[in-house]
Structure formats: structure tokens, C-alpha cells
Design brief:
single chain, 68 residues, 3 helices, elongated, mainly alpha
């Protein structure tokens, strides 16, 4: 199932903020700027998380007909 668009945005923002918090030794405003820059260029932790989620969903697609 596809995730609704408002949830897509919420998840993306949550991942970006959480990965920015994980950058130790960098002020939050700089870490957030770095994460946004990395996401805009198609690299970084948030993009890797998105790609991993897509791979997991693709792998679990075989079991989609088992709707409980």
C-alpha cells in the first residue's frame, strides 16, 4: 500500500531531523542545514533510510495478499 502524501512528508521531515540530531559536535542549525543539503542532492542518511524502506517494501510485496 502506498503511504498517504501527508504521512510521506511527515516521515521525511522526521528522518531528516533525527539524523541531524545524530551529528555530534555540530550545532543543530548547521547539522539540519547539512542534512537538508544532502537530501536535496540525493545522498545522506535520510535518503539511505528511504531507499532501505523501499527495498523492504519491495521484498514484502509477495506477502501483500495476506491482509489480516
Amino acid at each position: 500500500m502506498e503511504v498517504p502524501s501527508d504521512r510521506q512528508v511527515a516521515l521525511a521531515m522526521r528522518w531528516i531531523v533525527n539524523f541531524a540530531k545524530g551529528r555530534k559536535g555540530v550545532p543543530m542549525e548547521n547539522a539540519l542545514a547539512y542534512e537538508l543539503r544532502d537530501a536535496a542532492s540525493g545522498q545522506g542518511s535520510a535518503i539511505k533510510k528511504r531507499d532501505d524502506m523501499h527495498k523492504m517494501a519491495q521484498a514484502n510485496r509477495a506477502f501483500a495478499h495476506f491482509r489480516w
